[in-house]
């Protein structure tokens, strides 16, 4: 038999907790946030479910509905809540006094009671703004929740009714429904909803968001914020949201027009300021599309007295910053701030010591694009039709030393960095020679006999066969890649040094040496000769054909003995690193993504990339990472055979490192 309970209305002030309610003596078991949400719902929608009460001592004791009772009392106490006093009556169901199932009824309701429907919550908060004119701040204060929580519920409560109905009917998920809040216009929401559901099938939140993006640009989007003032001044339509940051600029074409105009103004300003021949714009810089463009770079100039004074000041400040950055206890934020300051100072120093030639300015230009939420300028670009292809026709790029003119599209390495790279290459070459003892033995013997027996100049100055190790100077010896050092150490460990006994006389040592097997002698000679290698870059075929051919034989790829690391990348400026990633390695998307990152983050990315190429790389990208090196370090004819522009001129006193 089913027990029936008579309906009645009871004043809120006449309601009291029932001793049989399983939670009546433990009010702390109520979740305060849930009470706040329930209070918000009752304030707008009223009490949707009657309370179960039993008359005790002239009062009505709440047997089931303790949370609703608590929310009603909060509304009575809240002077800002409209229509709720102690005399306000609410719907109840009366349990007979002789009913013996009170505890069971209370327990059953508290166990089986479902949380408030999420869509009901969303709608309740939305009505408080639409009907009562409240703000997110006042709603949050009233119900003891956060402004962020209120804003979230408000957005979802204002989604088109048809879409909310679909979510209630579970034909779409709650997450999919929430995705429609990306656009505040209910009409736009409805049109997208109908278009996406006309053929049936499962509707995903991602699909909804992508479809709504074509309906305009949110004012909180970086482009939306950038163009908003001009957009509204031109009368562009705005789909206003109750919360401004979710409003949408609906005319996407006008947004793009204004963006292009702003990019064009930035490009033209740079053209005028730097003296380039042309200016252009590209909303999203496409590295693949720009592959055929060349690039020119400023060359060194002699600073005047004022400029030199500023360079000296920068040098002093950079030294102080370097000491600060060596503090291991420095927090990331402070470290990044120092990095940015170093970048700014070094850029200023470069501007004081470099300038574009008149010829390069006459054929190059600047493109402005939108990257990382800001206008980015790509300067010194040369259109394909303007690229000079004739040998030696680059004029301003010609090297006064008589060496082959550098490619205008390559990085110009400052003298300090160039000297250190020469040292690293000499070390790698030495490792390769030690690992090819027979060839090196032949080279050594040929060098010795030809220098003595042949007339004229020495066959090569690249090695010194005079029983002395070559002196190698490097600014950061403790930070270089150790591959070549480890290979040389391994070669040393493999030497037979049994003859080298200080307790023996030189004659006895020589006798023991002569008794060694030819292969062991070859290793010893090769190791000794390898130790004489001088600081070097790739050989000029015309000037040193002997070493040019020999290096190609024993070291076709320097990357077998040397790997770029963070110490190298730290000495490149941010623009160079992005160029290497986007143009040399084919990682255009990664370059665009990292453009808004700090130099420290880009260096860490490059270091990790070269230490262990990512599994996500394509075969072509993996090959590029495996082969890349500064072009002048690779053996001529090898994987990186471009001739790189190198600044060989002596640096002035108070040198300022140009690569950060």
TrEMBL record:
Key words of the record: Coiled coil
Pfam families (alphabetical): HTH_ParB (PF17762), ParB_N (PF02195)
SUPFAM superfamilies listed in its UniProt record: KorB DNA-binding domain-like, ParB/Sulfiredoxin
Positions of the ParB-like N-terminal domain: 8-111
Region of interest: Disordered: 387-408, 640-660
Superkingdom of the source species: Bacteria
Coiled-coil features, chain-numbered ranges: 304-362
Name of the molecule in the record: ParB/RepB/Spo0J family partition protein
Taxonomic source organism: Roseobacter sinensis
């Amino acid at each position: 038999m089913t027990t029936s309970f008579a309906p009645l209305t009871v004043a809120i002030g006449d309601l009291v907790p029932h001793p049989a309610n399983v939670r009546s003596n433990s009010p702390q078991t109520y979740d305060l946030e849930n009470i706040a949400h329930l209070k918000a719902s009752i304030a707008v929608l009223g009490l949707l479910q009657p309370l179960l009460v039993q008359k005790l001592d002239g009062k009505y004791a709440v047997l089931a509905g303790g949370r609703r009772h608590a929310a009603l009392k909060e509304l009575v106490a809240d002077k800002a809540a409209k229509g709720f006093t102690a005399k306000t009556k609410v719907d109840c169901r009366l349990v007979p006094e002789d009913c013996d199932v009170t505890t069971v009824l209370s327990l059953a309701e508290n166990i089986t009671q479902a949380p408030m429907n999420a869509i009901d919550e969303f709608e309740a908060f939305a009505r408080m703004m639409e009907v009562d004119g409240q703000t997110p701040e006042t709603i949050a204060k009233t119900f003891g929740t956060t402004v962020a929580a209120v804003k979230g519920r408000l957005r979802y409560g204002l989604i088109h009714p048809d879409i909310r109905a679909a979510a209630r009917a579970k034909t779409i998920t709650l997450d999919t429904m929430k995705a429609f809040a990306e656009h505040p216009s209910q009409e736009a929401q409805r049109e997208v909803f109908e278009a996406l559901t006309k053929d049936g099938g499962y509707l995903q939140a991602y699909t909804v968001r992508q479809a709504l993006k074509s309906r305009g640009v949110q004012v909180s989007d970086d482009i939306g914020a950038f163009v908003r003032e001009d957009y509204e001044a031109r009368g562009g339509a705005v789909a206003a949201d109750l919360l401004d940051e979710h409003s949408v600029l609906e005319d996407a074409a006008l947004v793009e027009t204004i963006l292009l105009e702003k990019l064009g103004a930035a490009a033209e300003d740079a053209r005028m300021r730097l003296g380039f021949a042309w200016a252009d714009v590209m909303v999203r810089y496409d590295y693949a599309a720009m592959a055929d463009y060349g690039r020119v770079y400023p060359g060194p100039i002699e600073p005047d007295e004022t400029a030199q004074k500023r360079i000296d000041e920068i040098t002093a400040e950079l030294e102080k910053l370097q000491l600060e950055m060596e503090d291991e206890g420095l927090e990331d934020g402070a470290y990044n701030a120092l990095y940015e300051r170093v970048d700014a100072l070094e850029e200023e120093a470069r501007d004081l010591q470099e300038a574009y030639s008149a010829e390069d300015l006459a054929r190059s230009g600047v493109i402005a694009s939108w990257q990382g939420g800001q206008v980015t300028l790509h300067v010194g670009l040369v259109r394909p039709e303007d690229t000079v292809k004739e040998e030696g026709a680059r004029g301003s790029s010609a090297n006064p030393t008589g060496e082959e003119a550098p490619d205008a599209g390559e990085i110009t390495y400052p003298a300090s960095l160039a000297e250190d790279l020469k040292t690293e290459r000499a070390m790698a070459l030495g490792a390769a020679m030690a690992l090819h003892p027979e060839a090196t033995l032949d080279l050594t013997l040929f060098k010795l006999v030809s220098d003595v027996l042949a007339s004229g100049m020495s066959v090569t100055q690249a090695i010194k066969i005079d029983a002395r190790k070559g002196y190698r100077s490097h600014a950061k010896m403790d930070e270089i890649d150790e591959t070549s050092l480890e290979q040389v150490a391994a070669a040393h460990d493999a030497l037979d040094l049994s003859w080298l006994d200080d307790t023996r006389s030189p004659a006895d040592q020589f006798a023991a040496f002569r008794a060694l097997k030819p292969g062991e002698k070859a290793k010893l000679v090769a190791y000794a000769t390898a130790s004489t290698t001088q600081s070097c870059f790739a050989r000029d075929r015309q000037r040193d054909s002997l070493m040019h051919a020999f290096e190609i034989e024993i070291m076709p790829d320097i990357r077998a003995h040397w790997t770029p690391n963070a110490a190298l990348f730290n000495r490149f400026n941010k623009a160079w690193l992005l160029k290497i990633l986007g143009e040399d390695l084919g990682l255009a998307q990664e370059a665009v993504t990292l453009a808004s990152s700090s130099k420290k983050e880009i260096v860490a990315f490059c270091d990790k990339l070269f230490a262990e190429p990512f599994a996500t790389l394509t075969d072509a990208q993996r090959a590029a990472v495996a082969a890349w090196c500064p072009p002048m370090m690779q053996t001529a004819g090898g994987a990186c055979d471009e001739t790189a522009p190198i600044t060989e001129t002596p640096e002035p006193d108070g040198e300022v490192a140009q690569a950060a």
